[in-house]
Amino acid sequence: MLGVLQGFVLILGIIGIGYVAARAGVVKGDQRLVLNRVAFYVATPALLFGVLKDSDPAVMLSPVILVTSLAAVIVAGVYVVVSRLRFPRDLASTTLGATASGYVNSNNLGLPVAIYILGDALYVAPLLLVQLVIFAPIVLAILESTRGNQRGAIVALGRAASNPIILASVAGLLFALLRIPVPEFLMAPVTMIGSAAIPMVLLSFGISLHGQRALAPGSDRGAVLFATSLKVLAMPLVAWLLSLAMGLGAHETFVATTIAALPTAQNVYNYAATYRRAETLVRDTVFLTTFASLPVIAAVAQLLGGG
Questions:
Q1: Dist CA 190 CA 194 (whole Å)
Q2: What is the rounded CA–CA span in Å between residue 294 and residue 264?
Q3: CA 46/CA 195 separation, integer angstroms
């Protein structure tokens, strides 16, 4: 569990630095959105291209990834149905709430969990691919479609397809499929810019916490608590049940359940902040799941990992 704790400390440390920067007046108000926009349009595409160009697309077909992907879709669907009945919101907010319920932090926390609990970093790479190549384009297309009633679905999909995150992901996947080498002198600046993506998102997240508190009255408290429960409790349970139903082995069941217990990815907050929709809902869900997932992951490791 030491590696997982290190991952949590790293994330919370950078978030804390962002909060202190806001409290000290270094960054004020919506100035934090500059960080989000640079991360969204520049640094994150660079990071994703670097990750995907060296990946093996074939691993997307593994049974573990099928289980975790299905679990994400199921809990997202549950969120949509329940939210329409209990706390109806516009399409963008509902989409982001559903995404926060099933889109896992497969990078910041996924890597230490995979290395120190599952024993192999390759376990999170397939899910990262699925989220980037399949889930993210769908989410971004929906968000684009809500930017103006005059745009049709085809135009919205076209705008989403021209999004730099999607373009970088597709380019990286093509480079991996075709095994196209990239000279080091060309990749070096891309790698350096990409390494700034996660810190910028975490800093912006920390800045957004200044003057706010999680679950404040009027802050979509019901939606936040429901999305958090789906992410840290329901999704691992669904993944475990699906693993049993599909006849996965003990270790594969352990891997799928552990991955499903990871908290909501900060990328979802970056989408919310960039499109200026459901920011508080997503921010609070990311914040709560980051803390709540640790004991859940420890329990899964104890019960299913033989630890």
A1: 6
A2: 12
A3: 8
- Domains in the chain, please, with CATH? 2-14+30-304 (1.20.1530.20)
The answer to whether 285 and 127 are in contact (CB under 8 A) is no
Tokens 């802050």 locate to 219
Q: Could you report the per-residue pLDDT of 148-166, keeping only the tens digit for each?
A: 644 545 655 666 667 787 7
2 CB neighbour count, 10 Å cutoff: 8
Task: Identify the CA nearest to 51 among candidates 88, 117, 106.
Answer: 106
pLDDT tens for residues 73-125? Answer: 999 999 999 999 988 889 999 999 999 999 998 766 665 576 556 766 566 76
List, as own/partner pairs, every contact residues 17-20 make where C-beta atoms lie below 8 angstroms and the sequence separation is at least 24, other chains included.
Answer: 17/203, 17/206, 18/202, 18/203, 18/204, 18/205, 18/206, 18/207, 18/208, 18/209, 19/206, 19/207, 19/209, 19/210, 20/206
Bridge partners, 264 (sequence order): 104
As beta bridge partners, residue 104 has 264
Separation between Cα atoms, residue 209 and residue 151, nearest integer Å: 34
The pair of three-digit structure tokens given for residue 254, joined into one six-digit string = 């352990």
Distance, in Å, from the CA atom of 162 to the CA atom of 11, rounded to the nearest integer, reads: 30
Quote the CA–CA distance of 152 and 262 in Å, as a whole number: 35
Are 62 and 126 a contacting pair, CB within 8 Å?
yes
Q: Which two tokens stand for residue 299?
A: 């329990």
Nearest to 47 by CA among 170, 203, 177, 192: 192
